[in-house]
Amino acid sequence: GQTALHKACIAGNAPLVKYLLDKPVPVDPLDNSQRTPLYFAAEKGFLEIVNLLIKAKADVNSLDRREETPLFKPAGNGHVNVVRRLLDEGTDATRLD
Questions:
Q1: 8-43 pLDDT tens trace
Q2: Is the Cβ–Cβ distance between 14 and 49 less than 8 Å?
């Protein structure tokens, strides 16, 4: 299943993400596919949410079941600003899919 933080990231609800992170809630919970909230925010190109999660110390190199990091989807979806932000934080750009 997914946490409230997952759902807020998927919906692009930055105020709710900020509220939840201020509680605090775990920043890197895993869903059934081993994906963190950062994975979904990055995939959808929600830079503000990506920034909030990184500020809260989200793991930018977490791996899902397919061994993909949060960098894979935004790179494929053309979310250049998210890709830049993740690379600035040290995401491993050498991983292969």
A1: 999 999 999 999 999 989 999 999 999 999 999 999
A2: yes
